[in-house]
Amino acid sequence: MKIAFVIYDGVTALDFIGVYDSLSRVKSMSFDKDLFIDICGLEHTIKDSTGKIAFNIEKVGYSLKNYDMVIIPGGLGIRRLMNDEHFISYIKTVNPEAQLVSVCSGSLLLGVAGFLKNKKVAANKKIFSCMTDYGCEVVDKRVMVDGNVITAEGVTAGIDLGLFLCGILYNKDIMYKIATQMEYQLPENFESELF
Amino acid sequence: MKIAFVIYDGVTALDFIGVYDSLSRVKSMSFDKDLFIDICGLEHTIKDSTGKIAFNIEKVGYSLKNYDMVIIPGGLGIRRLMNDEHFISYIKTVNPEAQLVSVCSGSLLLGVAGFLKNKKVAANKKIFSCMTDYGCEVVDKRVMVDGNVITAEGVTAGIDLGLFLCGILYNKDIMYKIATQMEYQLPENFESELF
């Protein structure tokens, strides 16, 4: 399993780290030492939306085609990237059969790249109206799965999303053990809605 | 109001970013454009506990005495720092009357530096037994306030803590507006227990 996080100038750090934390615990808690995670983008260093947090990119400008899962966090930088042909071409290098995952406004990039046609998606509530431009139906859910497209609503929903990914990549037992280590209480309807 | 985050090699990124996100929204949502936040430490760049996330430090090796609030996130790196006299001396530069804040195992550093005597503190459940060495009483709460010491339990409790800090530095209305933008549901008893 090869996972790529795609980050960019103006990403919301918590959108990224909220998903990253639980997936990285798959390794640190020894459930799967071989889980492969890359931090990808088009620049060597990017800054978050506040301009104070700098993240290094491990894989700069490589095609995303060999990843089984590509995760795009949201952030203020998305608005600029929606009109950035170079960045959209980069997103389009994903294998269309890979699991395409977004948090918050990250779904806008999946939409512009054409991956959301006829899909049901979750997104930050503030961008519901923009999302319909991409042929998708926006649903008011914390995490939404529609085929290979897995989307989460705003910011902290990335934590629920990361735990859900642990659940589907491994199993619910591992998901709950990781949630316990993170001292995170999943919503009551989490399991019944998503599994 | 001057806030310092103190981070170090082996910090848990989510411990840090979970608190940082809500406080940074005080500025981005224009509640207080002048809120002053520094990211502090003893090295120019540090890596998180997974070794994949690099954070730049803005204020390297400066005394912490002029900050009104000092926030220490937890992480695997804490165990090493507890025996690092240079780092403990650095923590001791805080103004003892400042608000001293920790997430998860960050409380161990406050303990070693001598700031937890006769205090009630919250901490990661796995370190409850170590905490008593520092003359404090560990309580099973998500966020605990005892005078100028404000502590949170593990990892995701940092999000609750960050929102609580917005509540006490500003007001509950601002706290709830920020929680809504983060799409975060505070625990039911949050307000009755903490305000």
Strand content of chain A: 15-25%
Q: Tell me the Rg of chain A in angstroms.
A: 15 Å
CATH topology of chain A: Rossmann fold
- The percentage helix of chain A is 25-40%
**What is the number of helical segments of chain A per DSSP (H or I, 4+ residues)?**
8
Mean pLDDT across the residues of chain A is: 94
List the helices and strands and how they pair.
The structure is a homodimer of 195-residue chains.
Chain A: E1 2-6, H1 13-28, E2 36-41, E3 45-47, E4 54-56, E5 59-60, E6 69-72, H2 78-81, H3 85-91, E7 99-103, H4 106-112, E8 120-121, H5 128-131, E9 137-138, E10 143-146, E11 149-152, H6 157-169, H7 172-181, H8 190-194
Parallel strand pairs in A: 1-2, 1-6, 2-5, 6-7, 7-11, 8-9
Antiparallel strand pairs in A: 3-4, 10-11
Helix pairs in contact in A: 1-6, 6-7
Characterize the structure shown.
- The structure is a homodimer of 195-residue chains.
- With 195 residues, chain A is of the alpha/beta class.
- Chain A has 8 helices and 11 strands.
- In chain A, the strands form 3 sheets. A 7-stranded mixed beta sheet of chain A has the order 5-2-1-6-7-11-10, with helices on both faces.
- Chain A is globular and about 40 Å long.
- At the A-B interface, helix 1 and strand 4 of A face helix 1 and strand 4 of B.
Brief sketch in words of this structure:
The structure is a homodimer of 195-residue chains. Chain A is of the alpha/beta class. Chain A has eight helices and eleven strands.
